[in-house]
Amino acid sequence: MNFKKLLPFSFLALSGFYTSGQTLNTKIDQKAQALESKIVTWRRDFHQNPELGNREFKTAEKIAAHLKQLGFEVQTGVAHTGVVGLLKGGKPGPVVALRADMDGLPVTERVDLPFKSSVTTEYNGQNTGVMHACGHDTHVAILMGVAEVLASVKADLKGTVKFIFQPAEEGAPEGEEGGAKLMVKEGVLENPKVDAIFGLHINSQTEVNTIAYKPGATMAAVDFFSIDVKGKQTHGAYPWSGVDPIVTSSQIVTGLQTIVSRNLDITKAPAVVTIGAIHGGIRQNIIPEEVKMIGTIRTFDEEMHTHVHKRVKEISTNIAESAGATANVKIDVLYPVTFNDIPLTEKMIGTLQNVAGKENVILTSAKTGAEDFSYFQQKVPGFFFFLGGMPKGKNPLEAAPHHTPDFYIDESGLVLGVRSLSRLAVDYMEQSAGATKAKK
Ligand SMILES: [Zn+2]
Ligand SMILES: [Zn+2]
Fold it and tell me: For residue 378, how far is its CA from the centre of ligand 2 (angstroms)?
């Protein structure tokens, strides 16, 4: 390749793009700013009326009405309650998908806000409040804002934007399918075929107007497991006449701690094995027949993922066997690793730096939480980042974490979310158009 020959052309192309890009960017930023109070109003409405996974009926209705009013092609009832809107730009180009999740959680809100949720429901046989305790209300409001922003520059768009409002990110109710996995299964990434997907998550423990991201493995793969240890019931005063599943389970819990500390190369990637519940017995002088344990596994690497599964089974069954008990291990593979496509991340990070200011875009470490955005990323290159939602100057250690009754989001960070997603979509389309031109 003759670099010297190419230089003037690419320089011209770049400067041309820069000028038109500049005006389009200005239009987008101004429109996003002008929409701020509308976005906050939407967010408060969703916050006050949260709905659990696969039950986001009213949320979906409001989204669909907004998208229809903007003139989008709208599909409802995707993966139960999902809404998909299509905005066709004035010029040909790629298809970019933007995703927001819509579900709330069975958490009773404790924050004293005028738009506090007072919704209650029965969940797993218990009465509970319902709350947007993960901030998905902000995601919906942000993406509705993006829809309005991009609709206002429709004629300038070099491609199509697919807006994906997804149900049940936190998991579908027992016995139901749902979330990103079901949306993918129902063909959300086809017709028209999506070329790249972007998404964000608000974060209650990072400051407003900052963005955090990581190329590659960003959030963990998650699995649930259960171990049923069966012994032989006996009188608590005569343990030798039975097989004690409580002592055996205690040894198994301790044994499982050696997987991360002794079986994995932790310099390669982190991993977590947690037992979250252990149930057995009814009375002080009865050694029960059975103990049931449940837990979660978090990994970032496929080989380590397989190895942890193997070791959980080996350790549990062999310890049980040595005690004369049996251990029945069941592992359910849940969400895969949220993996930010490296070339796409590298290509788009400049956009986020332009939008937020270079000093406000922070390279972060991997998170052991999980996201079903990963199912989209398994099919198409995707980039998922974290948007600051903590009031400026607050100590992150004092900010309530996600999924807790005191979870709080500073709404002044929402406009940055709208500008980020809008400009990621636009820059991706501009760059793809530029790349096609360069290829010719
Ligand atoms: Zn969550
Ligand atoms: Zn979430």
Answer: 19
